[in-house]
Design brief:
With about 60 residues, this protein is mainly α. The protein has 2 helices and no strands.
Length: about 60
């Protein structure tokens, strides 16, 4: 698997949402870890696909 290391993230959230997030973290510490990992993975995949499509588009323009 990959080498991993902890990263501290600080967010400014509305009070009621911050209370909910703190409660979720207290009840299920791994949940937020999984949610953030999922979101970052989706973003990385989107960026990779976008770059790939841009390169394909550039190649198609050269053929025209």
């Amino acid at each position: 698997m990959w080498d991993t290391r902890p990263v501290e993230v600080v967010l400014q959230l509305p009070e009621d949402l911050a209370d909910d997030v703190e409660e979720i973290q207290r009840r299920d510490p791994e949940f937020l870890n999984k949610v953030i990992r999922y979101g970052l993975t989706r973003r990385a995949m989107f960026q990779a696909l976008s770059r790939s499509l841009e390169r394909q588009g550039d190649g198609l323009r050269e053929l025209a």
